[in-house]
Amino acid sequence: VFQLSVPLNFLGSVYRELRQSLLDMETLFNLQKVNIAVKEPKDAKPLLLTGGEIRFENVTFGYRPDRPILKDLNFTIPAGKKVAIVGPSGCGKSTILRLLFRFYDVQEGRILIDGQDIRNVSLESLRKAIGVVPQDTPLFNNTIEHNIRYGNMDASAEEVRAAAKKAHIHESIQRFPDGYGTMVGERGMMISGGEKQRLAVSRLILKDSPLLFFDEATSALDTHTEQALLAHINSILKEKSRTSVFVAHRLRTIYDSDLIIVLRAGKVTESGTHEQLVDRAGLYSELWSTQETLFGGNGDETNLSGEG
Ligand code: ATP
């Protein structure tokens, strides 16, 4: 038995990686037809978005049914608000996104978007409704222009440039050897992590989804680049009111959210605004003071702790 468990573990991690790269592919291509376990009903109607409220009701889910990751999970992400999901590593934050996209179905409970069970709506309309900036944006061996246009293959050259301007990447692109025609990806020019994530944001702008998901989108960046990207994202969010969900490790990137949902062991352990959670002296406040002790120290943070 012991000897067997090693190759099985290995297969498990290979499988997991495959699933995760599929997530990226699906996000980019919006490949409704390629899905593995999930079926849509014959009479599936398109998702009808009224404001963009996301609700998890008594959701239980595990990649293996005997090992639940989310346990009777309940939360509501109000329409048009900026919401953060935080919690210790492995508590199921990214799993929430995979369930929303219906890469898997819940084992118990239901997920509602604007009151509609996502199992009853067409997969195409569901996946179109959600735009994602992942932690590491995959680039295709193609031009910058093409890479941005993956957000919306029908976009005109002007729309691609307008999106790049909003994401604050247009000027950098103009400095690239062939501008928008510059080849990137494995066989093309290397671009920085910050530029990559701004490309992802321009894709998101082109896709124009009403629900936005930032899955550790800035976590691979240095603090300065991260702050700049977050400022751009915030100004884009202010333009139109959209539901936006930030999955984050570093609490300093999300403390200004309208609502912060704190997960522990597959359940919501507490939720509220930054101020409310700091006052509660629970897990959030514990994580906050640990991170401030570890990474704090400049003027910004002194101000922040003064407010909390
Ligand atoms: P982190 O903050 O480290 O990114 P997370 O909160 O986003 O973690 P998830 O990625 O949602 O956590 O994973 C939750 C749990 O599910 C982890 O224990 C992880 O190992 C496990 N897990 C994730 N994906 C799979 C998969 N495809 N198959 C099996 N187990 C998985």
From TrEMBL:
<protein>
    <recommendedName>
        <fullName>Iron-sulfur clusters transporter ATM1, mitochondrial</fullName>
    </recommendedName>
</protein>
<comment type="subunit">
    <text>Homodimer.</text>
</comment>
<comment type="similarity">
    <text>Belongs to the ABC transporter superfamily. ABCB family. Heavy Metal importer (TC 3.A.1.210) subfamily.</text>
</comment>
<feature type="domain" description="ABC transporter">
    <location>
        <begin position="54"/>
        <end position="290"/>
    </location>
</feature>
